[in-house]
Design a protein that fits this description.
Length: about 220
């Protein structure tokens, strides 16, 4: 009997992620992968960010286990959106992104945001061909998240940490500076933006950063 050994899942994912990167590089489009726990504010961050960009130049890939609620929220703001329902899987993989790209108009896009499935653990393992990986952490998630979740590499493989819901700071017993210090212990190069996706407080630094990084006027 011949036993077939398939490529390990992560190895196969890596090569498809490279393909995705190649497709988008050819079109001059930047890809941003947003990771974070359920309810941390990934969609809210996207909604407020869209207000500072030309929505027609933005594509969004929404990853959820089920429903199109988040896709409807960003679609109503003028962005083209594709919803991926993973039917139980706790993360997106590069193959799903490759397929989603076939359902987006690429010619008029400058940037594509991926909202990954709400989960601080599984999505970190799967590179999607992104140019930038962002982790969104809400202050309501409590302290010590960076040290409790160093593996897989959710904090160390991200370039940006959004500390969301700072409008709630007066109502919480949480040490924001302590959270940031912990995250920096794991990844000293993290760019950190404390902000509120509800009030817009702290947004100017984040918007300036992403526009400069990707040369968006
Ligand atoms: N006070 C406050 N509430 C926020 C902020 N950002 C998001 N929320 C609220 O937090 C809840 C979750 O926000 P979402 O943007 O749906 O979170 P998400 O990370 O996209 O959630 P999933 O897609 O389910 O993983 C909603 O009720 C938002 O209104 C914020 O900065 N401040
Ligand atoms: Mg969401």
């Amino acid at each position: 009997m011949k036993i077939k050994v398939l490529k390990p899942i992560l190895e196969a994912n890596e090569s498809i992620a490279d393909e995705v990167k190649g497709i988008l590089r050819e079109k001059g489009i930047k890809l941003v992968n947003i990771i974070g726990s359920p309810g941390s504010g990934k969609t809210a961050l996207l909604e407020k960010t869209l207000a500072h960009l030309f929505p027609a130049e933005v594509g969004i890939i929404e990853g959820d286990i089920s429903t199109t609620y988040d896709a409807e929220r960003v679609y109503s703001l003028g962005a083209e959106v594709v919803q991926i329902n993973t039917q139980g899987a706790c993360h997106l993989d590069a193959n799903m992104i490759k397929e989603a790209l076939q359902n987006l108009t690429l010619d008029n896009k400058k940037i594509i945001f991926i909202e990954n499935v709400g989960n601080l653990v599984c999505p970190a393992e799967f590179r999607l061909g992104e140019d930038l990986r962002i982790i969104v952490l809400s202050l309501t998630e409590g302290e010590h998240k960076p040290l409790k979740y160093p593996y897989p590499l959710s904090f160390s493989s991200s370039q940006v940490l959004i500390v969301n819901k700072i409008d709630l700071l007066p109502h919480l017993k949480v040490d924001m500076e302590g959270i940031i210090a912990e995250a920096k212990k794991i990844n000293p190069d993290l760019k950190v933006f404390p902000l509120s996706s509800l009030t817009g407080e702290g947004f100017s630094g984040w918007i300036e950063y992403i526009k400069n990084l990707f040369c968006i006027p």
